[in-house]
Every structure is written in structure tokens, then in C-alpha cells.
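Page 42, continued from yesterday. The earlier attempt failed because a stray header line got pasted into the input along with the sequence. Redoing it now with the clean sequence only.
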Amino acid sequence: MNTISNDKIDPLFRLVKSFSKSEKRSFKMLYGKGEHNKKFVQLFDEIDKRAGYDEEKLKNNKFFTPGQLPNLKIQLYNKLLDSLRFAGNNRSAKKQVTELIDNAHLLYDRCMYTDCLKQLDKARVLAHKFDLVTPLVEINELQQQTLRLTLNDKNSLFVDQLLGEMSIVVKRLKQINGFTNLSLQLNSLYAHIGSTRNKQELKKVKDFFTRKISEFSITQTGIEEQLSYYNAITGFFFFTRNFREAEKYALKWLELFEKNEGLKYYRTESYIKALNSLLVAQNKLFAVEDFTSTHRKLIAIKRDKKFNLNRNLNLQLFKAIYIHEMNRHFMLGDFKSGARIVIRHQPEINKFLPLLDQNTRFLFCYKIACLHFGASQFRPALSWLNKITMTESTNVREDIQSFARILRLICYFEMNDDYGVQSNIRSTYRFLLSRKNYGQYENLVIQFLKNLRGNETQSELKNQFLELQKNMIRISKLKYEKRAFIYFDMIAWLESKVQNRDIQDVFKDQVKKGIRYEF
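This time it went through. C-alpha cells are written below.
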């Protein structure tokens, strides 16, 4: 399956294919009647029945001329959005506030100022109820504008109240935007390099974060600021691989939802992120029981009818549930069971994978490849690794791209494919040299494979594996080399080669004995 990036697919085609059966029915009911055979409806039908987007084939149809297609695409795109708005599905609190503000603008334009203020009052009450800070700016501005046109003796007091509220809102927005921008900047850097690779990078990230976070105070703030703050600070500790602190702040993040009844239902995306962050920390700390308990809470979202899950939230859930289901199998050393689950859910994975950002796609493909590798299924592992190594982009998650190439080399070695090993040694070297920042881990594996003659006796090969294992254990204790073992436990694989045992059996033995390298 060749995964096509979501951003490379025609936007109109993506939008049409995102419609559910009920949404398609609503669209047809809204625009399919009267004025027989509307051309944009015919274009919808043409796109809907196709598996892929082909503009040349669309031009060659009996309903419209090639010259009409560009305008029809724009018209259909806008009509589809109108249809979604009209259907009113998943009317979140934020959407309800936006609708009330839109109503107020319409009434203001018709000089119906009293009615305009009533709509704004409703919007304000709802915004305060759900702690929606951003809409309050527009509500306050339109109220002030309207009050100037409805002068009376009560306005003076009301205007003073509005100005006081606006001052508070502006301060809150500065906090929220500060934390949100900090998260975006950290995520952008993390998507490029992965976790910090050396002292210089660690110092750079710490200095940047400390400088930015010191500009704000988290004391006596509202829920929205706290949600933004915990999102930023857990991201920072993951970036710097301080998983104890990441777990501490992820728990505080989750406590917000437990202390504020109903918060998880109208801030569902943040709730999913909080659970996901806690699961990542618990996985890295090998807290199996805590991890299992948190994972149940994540799965429970799909079953709870109170959650208003739209396509975006379903995608966030899909990512979190499946990544942590794979992590659970890694923690238990049960790769064969994990690989079976991947195969069983392949249609769903294929459906959602193109919708993911490239960073997440790489992570998904790598974890799936590792499951297959741990199950001694090297050809399927290669297939998933190729989805990473064959990509045109080399500027996203350089760490995963490096480790994917290392694991691909080992797959060829396990398959006794000497040609595959030699050709991939060259291509992997070229990639690592282009990065100019690879560690001892990558170098040890390449040198080991490069030095193999191919005619070693079992005794000679075992000695070489033992030597590599000794070196790997040594570098696994180095602060900036540990991250390589998070992605693939090379030491356990080497143990399987030395003992001539199945990889999974070695992992399971380590789990039973509580053996775990501190990564």
C-alpha cells in the first residue's frame, strides 16, 4: 500500500470523501431538488463515485465543459461547507457561541440593536460557562460598537463593566497565546530532529523554554490557560527526555478534567492529548499497571455517547489508541500478538494513515515495523520501513529516518540477503553523512555489518555478536545515546543472536525477570 500524503490530494476530493452517508444525504436534500441537474451536484456525484482524483477524466464528461470545471470546483467546495453548517452536526459550545455572534452581526447590520445585544448576552453567558476566552474579544467589541448607537442612562455602568472585562480577557489571551506558541515552536523543532541529541541542543532548548515560560504566571489563571500550560510543559519534558517530570505534569493536566465536571466533553481534544501524554510517560517509565489503567480511559472515550466525536477527534483517538496498543505489546514483549492486531486492523490503518501528518506517519510505520521484526516477520517489517526510507522528505524526524535505515539493514541481515546488506550500508552511510549528526549507535551497527565477511563460523559470528553487545551495553549508559534504544532494543536482539533463540522469547524473558535498560 503506497501511502499518499493527505496534503498532496486535491482539497475538493478530500472534502467529498470525508462526507458520511448522512452528510451526503443532507447535501442532496439541500441542493439536489429544484433547478434540475445543478452542475455542481453532478460534479459531486462524479467525484464521489471515483476511488482517486483525476482532473483529466473529470473534464471529459457530458455534464459540463472543461472550461467550467475550475469555477464548479470552487462552487461545490463552498456548497459542501454550507451543507455541513446547515446540518448542524457536532454543535460544540464554541460553534454555538460563534453562531450567536454571527446572528448579532446580522441584526446589527439591520439596525436591530436591542436584538443584537440580546444575542451577544447569550453568547457571553455561554462563553463564560465553557471558559471560551477568544470569542469574548469579538463579543465585547461588537457590544461596545452597538452601545454607542443605543445611548441611555444605563449604558455608562455597562460600558465600564465591558472595559474591565476586556482588560482581563486581553491578559488571559496573552497567556494562552504565549503557551500555545511555545508548544508550536517546540513541536516544530521536535518534528525535525526528535529528542535532543547532545549537550548543545539540550542547552538551547532549555534556555529557550526557560526564557519563554518565565514571561508568564500560571497562578490564579483560568482553565484554558492551564490546559495550554500543561500541554506546553509536558511537551518540553518529552523533548528533553525527562519522563518523570513529563508524567508529573501529565497527571496534573488530567486532574483538571477530573476536578471540573463535564470539561472532558467540551474540551475533548485536550482530554485526548492529556491521556496520550500520560501514556507516553508511563510507557517510557515501564509503568505497566498504570499504563493499562490509563489506556482503558482512552478506549472508553469511543464508547461514551456523551462525547461528541467528529472526524478530527476520531483521528486523534485512532492515533492514540493504536500507538499505545502497539506500545503495550512492546512493554509485554508480545510482538506476534501485536503483529496480528496490525494485520487484523489493516483496512482501518490504511484509511487513517494518509490523514496523519508526516511525523506521525513515520512513527506509526516504524512501530509497526518493529512489531513485525520482533515477531521475526522480516519481509513485512521491510515493507513498513520502506514507507519511511522511500519518502522524498528528509527534513522530518531525522532520528526515526536514521533508525529505520538501521533496522532495514538488520532485516536484510536476518534474511541472509548479502546484496541487500551491502547496498543498504552504502545508502545508509550517505544518509547519515548528510545529517552530519549521528551517534555511536549508528556507527557501531554499520561497522559491524561492514566487517562481516559472510563466511564466518558459528563460533566466530557469536564472538562478533558478543563484542557488539558489549559495546551496545556500554553506549546505552551514555545520556545522548540512550534514545536510540527507545526505538529498537538492539541489546535484546543481540542476546537472541548470541543464545540462538527467537527474538520474542528473549524479550519476554526480560519482562518476566524485570530486566530493563534505563533509556
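Notes: The first helix runs from residue 11 to 18.
Reminder to self: strip header lines before submitting.
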